[in-house]
Specification:
By secondary structure, the chain is mainly beta. The chain has 2 helices and 7 strands, in the order βαβββαβββ. It has one domain: Hypothetical upf0131 protein ytfp, CATH 3.10.490. Strands 1, 2, 3, 4, 5, 6 and 7 form a 7-stranded antiparallel beta sheet that branches. The protein is globular, with a radius of gyration of 14 Å.
Length: about 140
């Protein structure tokens, strides 16, 4: 059974920093998608709080993960998620429904931020690629 990842920040095509670019190159892009929640600007990267009841959306890229479990392990390291100690990780990896731009919905792994949203700016439009810090958007 295939597993999917929804990337909303630096793991998207063309945005990966050199230290993770080879890993991202191993992911197979499925297409653009939207998840419910709010995207925050933390400077060099974005963080998201997912909420299926949110009126706001987060834009990103859906990838099919390779069968190699080491890929997901390496992504966990990059995203600072420790499955052995999730309570002490700044992010948690959870499954979230993502609406594909081409139609349909996939359950995707996402890295959900556990930080304080009051300490970060919201990215209007929910797109890290098109970020303009300031106001909330739909």
């Amino acid at each position: 059974m295939s597993a999917y990842l929804f990337a909303y920040g630096t793991l998207q095509p063309g945005l990966a920093p050199p230290d993770v670019a080879l890993l991202v190159a191993r992911l197979m892009p499925i297409g653009e998608g939207l998840a419910r929640g709010v995207l925050y600007d933390l400077g060099r990267y974005a963080s998201a709080i997912f909420d299926n009841a949110s009126a706001f959306t987060i834009a990103g890229t859906v990838f099919q993960l390779p069968e190699d479990p080491e890929v997901l392990n390496a992504l966990d390291v990059y995203e600072e998620f420790d499955p052995a100690a999730p309570e002490s990780s700044p992010y948690q990896r959870i499954l979230c429904p993502v609406e594909l731009a081409a139609g349909g919905t996939l359950q995707c792994w996402v890295y959900a931020w556990k930080g304080d949203p009051a300490k970060a700016a919201i990215i209007p439009g929910g797109s890290f690629r098109n970020r303009r810090v300031g106001a909330v958007s739909e």
